[in-house]
Amino acid sequence: MSDEVTPPPAIEVQNLVKSYAGVPAVSDVSFTVQRGEIIGFLGPNGAGKSTTMRILTGFLPATSGVVNLCGVPVATEPDAIKHLIGYMPENNPLPEDMRVSEYLHYRGRLKEIPRRKLNDRLEEVLELCDLKRVRHRIIGKLSKGFRQRVGIAEAVLAEPPVIIMDEPTIGLDPHQILIVRDLIASLRGRMTVLISSHILPEIEVTCDRVIIINQGRIVATGTPNELRREILGHTAYQLEIAGEIAALSALLSQIEPTLVITKQGETDAGGFRTLHLTTESDEPLGEELLRVLTNDSRFRLRGLARERPTLEDVFLAATRRTWEMVDTPSKS
Amino acid sequence: MLLVSPSTYIAAVLFLSVMGFFFTSMLDYYSTAAQETTPAVFFFQYFCVPVLFMVPLLTMKSIAEERRLGTLETLLTTPVSTVEVVLGKFFAAYFLYMALWACTGGLFYILYRFDARFIDIGPLVGGYIFIAISGLMFVAIGIFASSLSRNQAVAGIISFTLLFGLIVGLSVLANVTLLQNEVMKPVKTAVGYAQVFHHLADFSHGVVDTRQVLFYVSGTVLALIFSIFTVEVKLLHS
After folding, report:
1. Do B73 and A94 touch (CB under 8 A)?
2. Cβ–Cβ < 8 Å for A108, A158
3. Which chain A residues are closer than 8 Å to B71 by Cβ?
4. Do both A70 and A210 map to the same domain?
5. What's the pTM?
6. Domain count, chain A
């Protein structure tokens, strides 16, 4: 870290391509991660998340493209890279027969932590991951939550600048997820963390930025809020209303031309039904809607809410968009 | 990893009890009639029995298990190379193998305390040197078999088959009539060099032939190089 003038970004990926026997798993992925950021890597199964992460660690060679970690090229300097990363693979493989402290000690030696520092560092990590109670237990007999924390402890053990974790919260109960999430958040600012996950609220809470990947391509990047605007591109409202729905459309288009009903619910006992409206306009329409609908005697309005799309909606929309992109040329 | 896994201790107990059994039955045999050879020569003639089941048991886990559990991935993302991993696995298994053989020295020690007449130091040392040198190659073959599969049982069977072919198969092959043919003479010579039992006999008589040492050392190196390649190739195509 001597060149403090412009430290190179923690992770720099340019035009990364990886294909297995001609079948592309990752095609032309580029992204940059600044130091100290926590990045969420999202994608459906088989999107290329794990492949990308394995290439970042130098475990798998890329077919083409450039990957630099802290300015060090992965392809040509694999030994230097291994000192820069802490990696926890998918499903967190651990040796079944070792004790927690034995395993961490062994990994510490493998990662070339000097013997003098290792014991202090082990204490720190055990404390950080709340593993002190189980330090003498055999890993094969630990519960999933503890195993996962052993994996995280192992990844942060050597205090590498970049930490890569493939689905760290998979299979955990909500309480354990909370603990793991706090653990990851506690690394913020000190280490660059790249985590992949299916659990979207998880990513939304922990990560500074999100990269959505599908079919080996990046479909969207940005903070969760930016993604909402960019991907969904519309504002949604929810109405609970009774009356002639058929007449509503005309009324809505008077308020805002792009305002349309996208979904209608069942009519309940009181004659009310739930309607979902969307508009391309960014202007707040809530007040206008409320005024027009309450003044119109044909309708009785019970509720009006502006919908806040979750990351899940963004994710579904973004991945759907790639499938359309991929499917269209094949049909023609 | 070898020292913390229960299978190591099971293999060790099995090995030592089998060797103890051989030793006792050998002494029993000696007590009934006078023999021409010393107990050491006789004892080492049975080396192939423990080798054929011990080496696969000790080595089958080494790489196959790491691959099956996925710990090979975490291992190779630390600052170690494939070469270091394979060599580490090899030497760990080799030292354990030698440690177990060293335990059989206790049997000879008991015999020595009982009656020093039976101990002829030459064949004994020669036998152990043979075990040490041939062990290099046997263990390397076991490691190679382990690098081929993610299934321990498959690795064990491959390793058993290779060792069986090398130790027993080649000595059978030497007597096949097809090789008596003049055209097959080069093959016959090659097979003749690779007779593990002949090597043992030479070593037991105190003859340390560098050609034989070279045979084992080059075999070891070759098996280890193949193991390293196998691990790397499997990574490329994983």
Report:
1. no
2. yes
3. 93-95
4. yes
5. 0.80
6. 2
Q: Let me know if residue B12 belongs to a domain.
A: yes
Residue type, A127: E
3-state secondary structure of A69: strand
The most confident of A266-280, B1-15, B135-149, by mean pLDDT: B135-149
Q: Which of residues 95-124 of B touch A (CB under 8 A)?
A: none
ipTM of the shown complex: 0.78
Note which residues in 277-316 of chain A have CB less than 8 A from chain B. none
CA distance A200 to chain B (A): 26
* A37 Cβ contact partners less than 8 Å away, ≥ 6 residues apart: A10, A192, A193, A208, A209
Q: Which residues of A touch B89 (CB under 8 A)?
A: none
Contact status of A82 with chain B (Cβ, < 8 Å): yes
The tens digit of pLDDT for each residue in A207-259 reads 888 888 888 888 888 887 777 777 666 677 787 888 777 777 777 777 777 77
Q: Which amino acid is at B215?
A: F
> Is residue B149 domain-resident?
yes
With an 8 Å Cβ cutoff, is A105 touching chain B? no
Tell me: do A122 and A267 sit in the same domain: no
Domain residue limits at A60: 11-222
pLDDT over 70 (residue A329) = no
Tally helices (H) and strands (E) across chain A.
11, 14
Are the Cβ atoms of B73 and A111 closer than 8 angstroms?
no
